[in-house]
Each structure stands twice: as C-alpha cells, then as structure tokens.
Amino acid sequence: MRFSPGSNALENLRSKFHPVFSVESGESELPELGPAFPFDPGSQKDSGNRCLQSCGSTGSPRTEKCGGTRTLFLSGSKWVKGSALYTPAMAQAEGAKAGLDLPDGLTGEDLLDIYGTMVLVRTLDERVWAMNRQGKAAIVASSQGHEGAQLASVWALKQHTSDYFLFTYYRDLAVLVAQGLTPTETILGFLAKDGEPMSGARQFPQHGAMPERRVINQSNVIGTQVPHAVGWALASKMRGEPTVVATFFGDGTTSQGEVHEAMNFAAVHKLPVLFLVENNKYAISVPIAKQMAVGDIAQRAAGYGMPGMTVDGTDIPESYRAVTDAAKRAANGEGPSLVEFDVERYLPHTSDDDDSVYRDPAEIEAAKKRDPLKKLAELLSGAGLLDDDRQQALLAQAKAEVDAATDAAEAAPFPDDGDVYKHVFAEGN
Amino acid sequence: MGMMTVIEAVRVAMVEEMRRDPRVFVMGEDVGKRGGVFLATQGFVDEFGEQRVIDTPLAEAAIAGIAAGAAMKGMRPIAEIQFADFIFPTMNQLIGEVARVRYGTKGKVTVPMVVRSPYGGHVRGGLYHSQSVEAYFAHTPGLKVVTPATPYDAKGLLKAAIRDDDPVIVLEHKRTYRSVRGEVPDEDYIVPIGSAEVKREGTDATIVTYGLTVHYSLQAAEMLAEEGASIEVVDLRTVSPIDRETVLASVVKTSRALVVHEDNITGGIGAEVSAIIAEHAFDSLDAPVMRCAGPDIPAMPFAPTLEAAYMPTADKIADAMRMLLAY
Fold first, then answer.
1. What is the number of helices (H) and of strands (E) in chain B?
2. Contact B73 A236 (CB under 8 A)
3. ipTM for this prediction
C-alpha cells in the first residue's frame, strides 16, 4: 500500500488497515498494491530492465524483475534479447528509432511489445468469435478495431504513473490481456468454464474483477463503472495514495446520466481520473448522429471544467501521447481529463447482433483501412523494426498460444453447481 | 446511559464510528455545514473536516455509485440519501451493481458501504417525502436492510451496518427522529443485523412489525390489554434478512399473527412474513395470518384527512387484532 507520509489526516490508515481491497474474510488475502512496476519509476528509461506486463506469472507478478530481461508480450511467453526471435535486424532497427516521431517515454521497443500484444488479442478475438459460430461460446463482444486505443492507454499509464487502476467495459479485451489475462483464462471465460479468474464464470466473458491485476469489469449495464472509478479515485485521494484511475467506455455510454454525474463530481473534487471514450460511432445500431448533437464527445469536457481531447484511436503514438498528458495531470493533482478515441468497430455489436441490417458494408471496408493492427505494422516496418519474418513468427506464436488455450479451456469442467449460493454475503461461504 | 432521541442516536453512532475507524466517512446532500436536513451530521465537518464529510451535488446516483467505488477500494462510506423518496436514482447502482459485486467477482471485490435514508410518513410529507421503500431493497439478495424503531436500536444497528463487510441500507423512520426518546448506553455496542426483538411479551396473539408502527402496535397492545387480551409485539428491526426464529417462536407460542407495516400491502414485508409463518408454523395457527398495512395507492397523500386514511394507526391495528382474536 502506498501513502504519502503526513499528507493527510488519514495516514494512520496505513498501520491499521492493510487490505487495499475489501476481500472476503477467510479467502486468501490479495497482495498489497505495490508500485505499478517492479522497478523504480525514476529509472524507467533504463533499457532492458523493465517488465511491462505481468510476465504471465501467477505469483506476485509485480514484484518480479523478470531476471533483468525485458518481457515482450505474448502473455506467458517471453521474447528476450538473445532468443531466436530477437534478430540482428531488430537490434539494428532499435537504433533507427530516431526515424519515428514518438512521444516521451514511448520507444520502438514498446511499439513492438504493443504490436505483439495486439496480434495476440486479435487472434484471440477471432478465435472466440469463431467458437461462437461453432456453438461453443455463448456470447462475444469483439474488440476488433479498438485494440490500439486500449493498448496505448495501458502503456501510457504504466509508464507515466506510479500506480493506476482500471474500470473497463465489455469491449476491452486488449486492456485485460495487457493487464495479464492469459489466453487460457480468456477462453475459459468464453466457454463459462471452471477456473475463469474474473467471476468464476458467473458472469459473461471478461466480466468480474482482477483487482490483483488492477482491473474491475463488473457490469453489463453501461456506465455504472464510471462512478465507481470516481469513487476509487476519491478513496485514493483520501488515503494519500498516488493512484491514477482510468475508466473506459463507449460513445453510447456517454448518454447515461450517471456518467454526467460522475464526471461532474470528479471535476469538482479534482480527482485523478481519466475518462477514456472509445467512440466507434455506434450504440449497437444507433449512429452517433442520433446519440448526440455535438461533433465530438470531447467537447462535453468543457462543460465540466476539465480538458477534453479527441484523438485517432487507431494511431498508437497519438493515443499514447493524449493519455500520457491526462495521466500526468491526474498524478499532479490537476484533476480529471476526457480522452475521446476515434475508433472503428469491425464486427457487429455482439455475436447476437446483425449489423447488415443497419450498416453499409462499404463503410466497414473503408474503416478497415485504418485498422490499428495494420497501421502499427506499417509504422514498425517503415522504421525498420518489423520485417515479414518477424511478423509471421509473431502470428504463428499467437496462434500456437491460442490453440493451446482453446484445448485447455475446452477440456476444463464447468463450475460445480454447489457454487451457486456462495459469495452472496461475507458470511456463509 | 442517557436518554436521547432517534436522531441523536444516529448522530452518536456515526461520530463514534468515525472516531474509531478512519475509513469511515459521510457523503450526501447538505451533510456538511448544514449538518444534514435532519441534523444527523451536525457538527461533523468541524470535527472531521471536509475530506470526511463531503457535501455532494444533488445527484443521488452519483452519491451511491461513488460511495460504492470508494468502498471497493476499502473505505467505509456512509452515503446519506436525504429522503427515501429520492432514492430511486440510486437503484441502478444499489440493486444492479452494489448488491451483485461480491457475487459477480466471486468475492474478489466487496462493497462495505452504508446507505442511510429517512423514510416513512405521518409527518405531512405528501407523495414525495413520506414513502416507505424497504420492500424494493429487501427483495434484492446481496443487500441487507435495517429499520430501527428506537434510539437504542438506531445506534446499535447503524454501528453494525458500518462494520458490516457488505452493503447495508439503513432506513430511519423520520417521524421517530424527534418523537421517540429512549435509553442509550454510553458504551460501545451493536445490535446484530438480522435479529428481531420481542418489544412486548404476550400470550394471545403476535404482532410482527418494524419502524414507526412498532410504537403504534405497542399502543394498540396497551389498548387491547385493557380489554383483557395479551398481545406480543415482535420488532423485526432488520427486514432483510428476516429473523425467522424469533418470529416463529412467538407465533408458535401465541397461535395468532398479525403483520403490521406502513408500506403498502401488496408485495410488502408482510407478505414475506406471512409466507414464512404459513410455511413453517401452519400447524400452530388458530387463525389465518392477517396483515394491517398501507393501502395500495401510489404514495401517502398530503392532506391530513387523506394521510390519516392511509396510515395504519394504533386504532386500526387494534381493530385488526380484534378481528384476528375473534376468528
């Protein structure tokens, strides 16, 4: 747990009350929140010594140093300097990063990490969609088209805050994977199998919480997480902790009254919250023009007295830069910000939706020209950081991982039906 | 031990808990300098500061949702909803989210928050300052709902609610705030959530009730005593979860049960209590379970004649009991 000593009257909380999260008594205690990284934030520029991910470790992920090597992301596996996949061409390319106009803190290596994660997330997303069509996965809400904004946000928060916490929504698979949700855990969720870590398969896939991985994704009711994020930030501020909270939601959610109420409260109290809007221009079937009369959702921020910005959510550096600015403001006590990402939704709202009824296929085809995965590949290739071999190797690795995850999840049992009465209250578990 | 009113007991409970536990804070409309419209938080901002006594915008959904987020983080918020009639914007949060977070995260995240709200009528509050809302919340697994009727219970139940690891809705009958006085010990104590209390012992019939109608039922029992009937009065104190053992023990003893509440009759707490008695004490009954409750009209009206026509008063309760005893 982190407190600024002497920063407020609640400092004796530290000695008296340990759990940062309220957990059921009798259950294994969650690890205390340490720094967001297993390294000193002041030294984050050190090359080769930072872990941007939880290493796939289930132990105490944030306290491992990854053996002094850096972790590239394919969750559970490490791409390490010296491995077969770390080619001389890559090493050379790292030096060529000057050719990229990158925001402060973001390196070519980071972009490769993001790319590897995005390949994995896209592969996973395509797999679970296919499993829905096979009759195996009951429901899927795809993240395809949104992954760039999500990953840029997580990277910016990891690199520019000393502690952060996330409240997400149903289209945020990339956020969850970046926070440590493994492919096997993901597919366990889509198949509602035992061992699913977020809700024990009580909830729709990806829902529930991984507080040990700094993320809560509780509800299917849109917008309810926004006041929760504000409350978490309020509590952090009261406790003198440096946590920056970010909550993700779609354009449709901005129409909810609770979102307005929460943003207003956050601005009044200058709370460290980022409102990250993934605007794909559709609330299921209702286009943006029928949702709001303003051109940009970010315009609304002015009405609350906080900054708002609209960025191309398929552009990683641009998205990263915007979230970095917002995170720094929040960490400095300057209050909340709204970042609106212009993103695309390539698939129907969910696997139960039929977007051919309300969407012109030509519009989707046009949207695919700005696919964040392709755009990032082009950016990296142009800078000499990614060649075809490496691209194919990453894809093959992702497929192998997702194949193995599919097999493991399909073999897993469903939860025991005796579980149904548990965790209603603290008592009686 | 001292005499105090219900509102004083509420205030003392919060002060003691805020001194005891730095995680406890209050938020709501006018809770700061104003001290709350019923003065439940009078003087709090001077002792605890604005950081722990938060005046909010007039936005009940945010009050509930933000308190929930703070509770998830490990704080112990007390959210005041100024009148229970204004609680409906919070229901998306309280029923949809707060009640389900522990279940939906398999216990990884919990919401140890308290919602306090003055409820009930017979105060000339009209349609929007008189309402009873307990049944909506009592129907929802994952929430606990308490309805203290006396200063002793108000203090003990509120302390128990603040210390509870789950969300608790504390509904305080606003007519009891200043009209009911009673002994309250100086020492620390709680009244366990889920425990009813026999407020008056009797042998001929049982009244099961809670809130303001506890007092009206006690008056009715006194009237009936003069007519030779011995009436037991059970105060549920907690309407979810209901203390079945205390209710059933009383009914098995007396063989007759009248359930009394101010909330309208259909789908109310009385229906649940009646079902519990019918399912578990049928063989002990000498008469059908009866209910004396508010009528099925949208809310309590303003005009004194109309309000009186709504309210289950001591006279109406006594009349219902005479019918039950004559069965």
1. 13, 14
2. yes
3. 0.97
